[in-house]
Amino acid sequence: MDAETAGLKVLDTAERLFGERGVQAVGMDAVRSASGVSLKRLYQVFPSKELLVEAVLKRRDEAVRASLAAHGARVADGPYARVLAVFDWLADWFAEPGFRGCAFINAFGELGGVTPAVAAIARDHKEAVRAYFAEQTDALGAPRDLADQLDLLANGAMAVAGITGSPEPAARAKAAARVLLDAARP
Fold first, then answer.
1. Nearest alpha-carbon partner for 86 in 11, 155, 186
2. Quick one: which of 157, 33, 184 has its CA closest to 93?
3. Which one of 115, 141, 155, 178 is at 20 to 30 Å from 49 when CA atoms are compared?
């Protein structure tokens, strides 16, 4: 198995295992066993677990950003609708089998205090989502604080959905977002 194929297999496996069990509960041997990649090849591709965690989060960041932007562009006409579409996107994600919360919130909770690189990736990701809201609220001519408020609603929904296992927090957050958007209209 070449390094690229092994790397993708390891990333897929690690993302699934970290999501199911948490980052700290999954050792490199578990990733090796579940991926079928030899331990030697695993360490050639990812010399440490920290580097593997970082790679999983970076890949997840790219996927989330692309999916969120594509969803908004596909289903929403204009910035008001794109903001609300975020919460529909969240509802779909929360309803996926095996949803256990936001990978960035979870990884930060487990490792953010002791692994600066994980904390930085989580912060960058959360800032990117906030920036997406800011792009939409700026287009509406809304106050700058609105993007921060919408971001808090989205992240709160992620945390509650991860704990409850229900997609319902997305609908409640969407209703609150609509109130905020309507109140901010000139």
1. 155
2. 157
3. 155
Instruction: Give pLDDT tens digits for 16-53.
Output: 999 999 999 999 999 999 999 999 999 999 999 999 99
Buried b (16+ CB within 10 A) or exposed e, 98-128: ebbbbbbbbbbebbbeebeebbebbeebbee
What lies within 8 Å, CB to CB, of 106 at 6+ separation is 18, 22, 23, 100, 162
Instruction: Answer yes or no: is pLDDT of 3 > 90.
Output: no
Query: What is the token pair recorded at 186?
Result: 């000139």
pTM: 0.93
DSSP 128-180: HHHHHHHHHHHHHT--THHHHHHHHHHHHHHHHHHHH--SHHHHHHHHHHHHH
- How much is the pLDDT for 172? 98
Given a cut of 90, whether residue 186 has pLDDT beyond it is no
pLDDT of residue 4: 87
How does DSSP classify residue 113? T
pLDDT score recorded for residue 125: 98
